[in-house]
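Why should sequence recovery work at all? Because a backbone constrains its sequence more than one might expect. Tight turns favour small or flexible residues, buried strands favour hydrophobic ones, and helices have their own preferences. The token representation captures these environments compactly. In the example below, the structure is given first.
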């Protein structure tokens, strides 16, 4: 390379010290004749790739935050250890992205100052470890939580236009160090190669909006009605899940449907419980230390002895637990496992619907569970149209005995459907925006679960979904409008302006540095 214009000696020294892990002043560096070799350039390229790799992982970490409570529950069932693992995830991700970002900024500044890119071997090892850790995280995600790849694709509908603008801005800023390298190197082939790669990347970015689609690119008057809220086990961020307190809190959040899970005790009493074991949401190990914690193995008298609220204050499954009022805390510790009869009475008084699954589906006495549960519903006096039936087992029997109960299917409609499907309940990853619109046109109610983050709620709102099941009813209740809504003409104008400004800045950078 040609001799660089350089920068002040103090600045060069401050940049060289953390990057090269040695104290070399600019004058000493010249006397030693240090230059950036091809190997040094390869390590810079590796550093840049590691930075992008960790940046993509940070994006994934933000996306999977919507579903991370499921991961916490999974770890508890496996290890009997409760911890908000999202904190561990974000602390580790912040360390990795900060480290690679600092090194990359140092390298770019050294390049602009004309200093050698002599990356120390310690940094090389740490960068390799960073790449391996992130690769392991992606591998684990693909093996154990593959549906999150679908979540990432959905997230691009919410972030695509803004990721495009940010990426164009970042690549535009790279014009300065790139121009510096091109003007300094004597290798014509390298100059042409770098320039062609950069131009190809920028052209691809400039045209990227042709492939960006989002349901929120629409006119204001085309926006569908706001989706109704279904409380996932009530309002689990404000009260212990599947309790009467949780139901009441959900009503305060304007929830229209209380979603819960039903099991049947050993003496035939249906009650609210999600897990097949009582360990996570009760103090069963303290009250019955010598008994297995299987939910259906206990009779109703034993179940009533269990505390179904204190765990909520002790484990703090959500950060919102810290903001509970003293009155709510007192009410929490008084919670007991409610029977289905109690839940139906509360739903009838509050005039909300109730939707439930009947667990466990593989139980040998499942048909009896269905009959007992249906008997409680019929005896409760609740209007049958307020009951949404999710279980697939023995659905025909239910339709015959209680034809007024609304049948909700956990699958998409079939081509040769014998009976019309009016309600479907699916994971939000399983339906595209196009399918949601088609179901809406065919008057099929679509409920998607579990939707906690405003960005995801906004995308589904723009798509026209009927309702969403959520843990964060207190957050989604306050949303009066999707996070963003852009008419196609406005987005086209932003696209053209961003691309033109970027092009002018790149030309200015190359002319200025020449």
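From this structural description, the recovered sequence reads:
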């Amino acid at each position: 390379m040609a001799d660089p214009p350089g920068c002040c000696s103090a600045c060069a020294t401050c940049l060289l010290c953390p990057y090269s892990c040695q104290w070399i002043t600019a004058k000493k560096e010249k006397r030693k004749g240090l230059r950036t070799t091809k190997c040094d350039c390869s390590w810079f390229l590796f550093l840049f790739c590691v930075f992008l790799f960790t940046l993509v992982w940070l994006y994934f970490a933000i996306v999977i935050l919507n579903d991370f409570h499921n991961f916490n529950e999974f770890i508890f069932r496996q290890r009997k250890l409760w911890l908000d693992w999202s904190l561990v995830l974000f602390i580790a991700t912040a360390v990795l992205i900060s480290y690679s970002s600092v090194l990359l900024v140092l390298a770019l500044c050294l390049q602009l100052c004309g200093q050698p890119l002599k990356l120390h071997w310690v940094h090389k090892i740490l960068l390799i470890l960073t790449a391996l850790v992130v690769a392991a995280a992606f591998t684990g995600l693909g093996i154990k939580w593959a549906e999150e790849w679908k979540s990432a694709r959905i997230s691009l509908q919410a972030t695509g236009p803004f990721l495009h603008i940010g990426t164009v801005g970042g690549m535009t800023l790279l014009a300065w160090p790139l121009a510096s390298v091109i003007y300094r190197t004597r290798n014509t082939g390298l100059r042409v190669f770098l320039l062609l790669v950069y131009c190809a990347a920028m052209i691809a970015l400039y045209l990227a909006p042709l492939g960006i689609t989002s349901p929120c690119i629409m006119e204001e008057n085309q926006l569908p009605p706001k989706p109704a809220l279904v409380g996932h086990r009530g309002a689990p961020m404000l009260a212990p899940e599947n309790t009467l307190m949780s139901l009441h809190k959900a009503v305060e959040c304007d929830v229209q449907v209380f979603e819960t899970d039903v099991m049947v005790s050993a003496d035939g009493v249906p009650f609210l419980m999600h897990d097949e074991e009582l360990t996570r949401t009760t103090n069963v190990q303290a009250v019955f230390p010598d008994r297995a914690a299987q939910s259906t193995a206990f009779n109703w008298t034993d179940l009533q002895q269990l505390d179904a609220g204190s765990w909520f204050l002790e484990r703090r499954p959500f950060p919102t637990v810290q903001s509970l009022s003293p009155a709510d805390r007192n009410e929490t510790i008084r919670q007991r496992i409610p029977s289905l009869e109690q839940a139906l009475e509360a739903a009838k008084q509050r005039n909300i619907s109730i939707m439930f699954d009947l667990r466990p589906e593989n139980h040998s006495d499942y048909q009896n569970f269905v009959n007992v549960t249906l008997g409680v519903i019929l005896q409760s006096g609740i209007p049958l149209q307020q009951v949404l039936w999710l279980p697939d087992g023995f659905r025909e029997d239910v339709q015959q005995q209680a034809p007024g109960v609304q049948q909700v299917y956990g699958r998409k409609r079939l081509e040769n459907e014998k009976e019309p499907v009016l309600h479907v309940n699916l994971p939000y990853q399983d339906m595209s925006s196009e399918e949601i619109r088609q179901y809406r046109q065919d008057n099929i109610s679509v409920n998607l679960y579990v939707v906690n983050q405003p960005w995801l709620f906004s995308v589904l709102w723009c798509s026209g979904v009927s309702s969403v099941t959520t843990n964060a009813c207190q957050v989604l209740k306050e949303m009066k409008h999707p996070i963003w809504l852009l008419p196609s003409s406005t987005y086209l104008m932003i696209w053209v302006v961003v691309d033109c400004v970027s092009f002018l800045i790149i030309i200015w950078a190359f002319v200025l540095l020449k």
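A few observations help interpret the result. The first helix runs from residue 9 to 20.
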